[in-house]
Structure formats: structure tokens, C-alpha cells
Design a protein that fits this description.
The chain is about 55% helix and about 15% strand. By secondary structure, it is of the alpha+beta class. Strands 1-6-2-3-4-5 form a six-stranded antiparallel sheet. A five-stranded mixed sheet has the order 7-9-8-10-11, with helices on both faces.
């Protein structure tokens, strides 16, 4: 697994930050500055974890805030580690592969470059919309569980009605067991840094799953077809065949089990005498195949009639898995393509050229709307929005992050209400809050409004009570409406960067890497 991805995982786990694998992986592998300390800092910021890059000396190690990220120089290049504990004699850390280990202080100092990322977790550290994602995952798991139970119930009922022998049922259970083991093996080949799987696949000098699975002897079509994929396809097709055809498939499956004997023998020979390493998953699958042969011989299953439909269905299921699996793995290629596009879009020179070709503001919006100045602003961003616009709410956190860094002047304007009394009341209320001259209050009010899942004006007005200030905003509202008409702003959100409309090729997420 990628060093930066596994380090981000270990940091989030150390800080007890809830996250989902898919969101984290996509953010990591599509970042334009991947791989670098800057990009790790950006990723952690998505979860509410603040960071500060620093170059520290050996004398600062005892003052290191934990957990923290450090860069180490190894024989094959620079990597990141996560320090979790420091004592006088040793350092506890997650290494470049995500394994937790204790390293002597002296050995650590020899490899540490001094480059570090100090971390500070906020109060509400979590992945964006994590609760909804967890609920979705639970629903999917629940539906899958119901599907599995229903399938097993249907299959069991069919076996009972047909008076199935115990030996046939045992053979079917072996197929299910093989499918489970091969599924885990397939998972391991995709996520070799998984701590639980790694622990099972290693243990002493003679146990090493990677040596067996990655051996060129077992790789076909440039590694696209490997032992784990073949095993999964075999057991998946076999289980599907029994589920679909039951006894009609038994003769074909029996001969297929017998044919697997040379494969079992060769695999055992190769592990024992050629590479002298054992793969525990492979041994389990070999054991299942051997028991299949025993069940076939004991039950004399090969004496039945051979049905061509069994062969056709098996080949369909087997080749289907072989072909679909590489297609699913193309997601990593998609991540790489998205990362290359992000690198291109984060090029400031190209952005400036594209911006100059975009529509330019003709009328100065000075004195209109809500103006929020950063500490050291380099750029001005005008956001024309609607308080009840969903996309406007999604844009707000990104612009807020840029403002919090002090990078921008954020100018917020609102589109005409067009007779919508509720919308106009909300706009007047936000302007009234801004008129008090308290920037923190304005900032908080905007966060509360755009961060709310349900836009409830009455609740918002009760939290931020106003008196006569509301009646003083009509002229400001009309001035904003006139400005929008003159600039022909007809949709929200519309963004202007330094006086030019944001080009259609860019979105607000790209600004995080451009306006720095």
C-alpha cells in the first residue's frame, strides 16, 4: 500500500478520528501535490486535524507532540513514519508499511531527516458527512446479510426437499468455505498492509504469503491473473453452479475436483522445496481442495450424467470473475488520471491565463453584501449566492477554509429574492448581523446558516435576534439586486476571482491548491 495513504490511516486511527476507506483513498490518490508533506497536511485538514511542518533537531525529540509524522531516510528513499511514543531509550512508531514497532532512539535518529509534521486535533474531528456514510454502509451490510441468509435458506430448503445426502451437503459447504478463504486472500492481495491479514500471513522465517503469491511462477498475463483471483473464480463458479443446478452439476464438479489434484501437489512442492516459504492462505485452500477430492471419491460423484449446461454455466461464471476483477482495479488508474488533471488545474500560470479569458466585472461591488478580510490576503473572491441554495452551502466550507488561512478577501453577495419573502428575510438578517461590525459573529452566523442540514429561518433568527437593524437593510438589498442585474448573474453560486468569473473548467475545490 502507498506509504502516504497508510500513514494517513495510522494518524487518523491514533487520534480516534472516524473515517471511511473510500473517501480517504480518493482524497490521497487524487491530490495534485501527491506525494508530499504538504498534501498529507491538506488531507488531515479535511478531517479537522491541524498541522504545522517543521525541521527539528535531535534535542527536540522529547518535546514532540504525539502522535506526529516524521520523515526518515532509508536505503531505497524517503518515507514517512508516525511516532506514537518517545522514551529515553526507544521510539514507538508506525513504520513506512504501517507496522507498529519499537526502534532504539539511536537507530531512529540515524534515519530521521528532522522534517516533521506536528499535529493538533480539534474538538469535532471527523470525516465530512461521516454519520451519513456510516448509515449507508450499515444499510448495505444489512441488505447483503438479508440476501445471504435468504439464499442459504432457499438453498437449504431445496436440498431438504430433494432428499440430499449429507456428503453432498458437505461438498457444498467445502465450496462455501473455499469461497470465503479465497475472498479474504483476494482482499489481502489488494490490501497487503492490513494489520490483521498481515499478522496472519507472517510469522517466523518460513511463513511469507507475499513470496508465494507474488512469485512469477503463478502470475499470468503480466500479473493480471494470479492465484488469489483463480481460486476465488473457481470457488465462486462452483458455488454458483451448485446453487443453480444442484445435482445436475455434480458430475462435472466432481471431475473438476479430481483435476485439481496436480495443482495441489505442485503448489505444496513449490512452497516446500523451491522457495521454502509457506502461504497460510494457500495451504488452507489446498486443504479445502484435498477434502473436496475425498468427498468426491467417497460419494462416487463422477458416475452421474455429464450435462453441457453445467460446463457452460461454470465457464460463464469463472471467466466473468476473471474479466471483471481487472476492470474493478482500474479505479486506481482513474485516481491517477484525476491526480494528473488536478496537477494541471493547480498550475497557477495556466489558471491566470484561463481567468483572463473569462468575464470581467464591470461594476465595483464595494460597499455591498458581506466583506470578510483575511490576515494576509493575496486574492479576492466574490461569491454570489442564494441562502437556500444547496450548491452554495457546499461551496461555503471551502471558501471559509481559504479565509481562515488568511489567503483571501471573501466578499459575499446575494441574488434578488424575486418576491420570495422567506429568502429576502434571511438575506436582511445576515446583512443586519454584518452591520454590527463583529466579524467573529458574522463568521459564526454564516457557518451556522450554511452548515445546517435544514434551513430553518425562525430557529436562526431566535439564535441571532435583531431589532430595528432588519428594517435598515432594504436599500442594501436593492443595491445588490441592481448589481446582479448589471453583471447578468443568473445562477448561484457564481464566483469571481480577482474580478474575473471562475472559468467553467475549474470548480471551487481547485481553489484550495491555487489560492495559496
Amino acid at each position: 500500500m502507498d506509504n502516504c495513504l497508510i500513514i494517513c490511516k495510522r494518524v487518523l486511527e491514533s487520534l480516534s478520528v472516524p473515517y471511511t476507506q473510500q473517501f480517504l483513498k480518493e482524497k490521497v490518490l487524487t491530490h495534485p501535490h501527491y506525494p508530499s508533506l504538504l498534501y498529507i497536511s491538506d488531507i488531515l485538514e479535511e478531517y479537522g486535524v491541524g498541522s504545522l511542518a517543521a525541521k527539528l533537531g535531535p534535542d527536540r525529540l522529547d518535546d514532540f507532540s504525539l502522535p506526529g509524522i516524521v520523515q526518515v531516510l532509508l536505503a531505497d528513499g524517503n518515507y514517512f513514519n508516525v511516532i506514537t511514543a518517545v522514551s529515553e531509550s526507544e521510539i514507538t512508531l508506525f513504520d513506512e508499511k504501517g507496522k507498529q514497532k519499537d526502534v532504539s532512539r539511536l537507530d531512529f535518529l540515524k534515519s530521521w531527516t528532522g522534517v516533521s509534521l506536528l499535529l493538533e486535533a480539534g474538538e469535532d474531528v471527523a470525516e465530512p458527512e461521516i454519520n451519513q456514510k456510516i448509515r449507508d454502509q450499515q444499510i448495505i451490510k444489512g441488505v447483503a446479510m438479508i440476501g445471504v441468509v435468504s439464499f442459504l435458506g432457499w438453498l437449504g430448503l431445496g436440498l431438504v426437499e430433494n432428499g440430499t445426502s449429507g456428503l453432498f451437503l458437505f461438498y457444498f459447504l467445502l465450496k462455501g468455505l473455499g469461497l470465503s478463504i479465497s475472498s479474504i486472500l483476494l482482499w489481502y492481495q489488494h490490501d497487503k498492509e492490513n494489520p490483521a491479514l498481515q499478522k496472519f500471513c507472517s510469522g517466523g522465517k518460513s511463513v511469507d504469503c507475499n513470496s508465494v503469491l507474488d512469485s512469477k511462477t503463478f502470475q499470468l498475463v503480466d500479473g493480471r491473473i494470479n492465484p488469489s483471483l483463480i481460486a476465488f473464480a473457481y470457488f465462486f463458479a462452483g458455488t454458483g453452479l451448485i446453487a443453480g443446478l444442484a445435482f445436475l452439476a455434480m458430475t462435472f464438479l466432481a471431475w473438476l475436483s479430481v483435476v485439481s489434484i496436480p495443482i495441489v501437489i505442485y503448489s505444496f512442492y513449490y512452497q516446500a522445496l523451491v522457495i521454502k516459504k509457506w502461504c497460510r492462505f494457500c495451504l488452507l485452500i489446498q486443504g479445502v481442495l484435498a477434502m473436496e477430492v475425498m468427498a468426491v471419491l467417497w460419494g462416487v460423484f463422477w458416475e452421474g450424467e455429464f450435462y453441457l449446461s453445467a460446463l457452460s454455466l461454470f465457464l460463464f461464471l469463472f471467466t466473468g470473475v476473471i474479466l471483471i476483477r481487472p476492470m474493478l482495479e482500474r479505479k486506481d488508474e482513474l485516481y491517477r488520471s484525476k491526480r494528473e488533471l488536478a496537477k494541471l488545474k493547480s498550475n497557477k500560470e495556466l489558471f491566470e491565463l484561463s481567468l483572463l479569458r473569462s468575464k470581467k466585472i464591470k461594476n465595483d461591488p464595494q460597499g455591498l453584501g458581506i466583506l470578510m478580510k483575511g490576515e494576509k490576503p493575496k486574492n479576492q473572491v466574490i461569491k454570489v449566492c442564494n441562502p437556500y441554495c444547496g450548491p452554495c452551502a457546499r461551496v461555503h466550507p471551502v471558501l471559509e477554509s481559504l479565509f481562515d488561512r488568511g489567503n483571501i478577501v471573501l466578499h459575499i453577495l446575494f441574488t434578488p429574492g424575486n418576491g420570495d419573502e422567506q429568502k429576502e428575510k434571511t438575506v436582511r438578517h445576515l446583512l443586519a448581523i454584518e452591520s454590527k461590525g463583529n466579524s467573529k459573529l458574522t463568521h459564526q452566523a454564516l457557518d451556522d446558516w450554511y452548515g445546517a442540514e435544514r434551513k430553518d429561518y425562525n430557529a436562526f433568527a431566535a439564535k441571532y435576534p435583531m431589532n430595528g437593524e432588519l428594517m435598515q437593510q432594504d436599500e442594501k438589498v436593492r443595491a445588490m439586486e441592481d448589481w446582479c442585474e448589471k453583471e447578468k448573474v443568473y445562477y448561484t453560486p457564481t464566483l469571481f476571482i480577482n474580478g474575473y468569473e471562475l472559468p467553467k473548467e475549474y470548480n471551487v475545490e481547485d481553489l484550495k491548491y491555487i489560492l495559496t
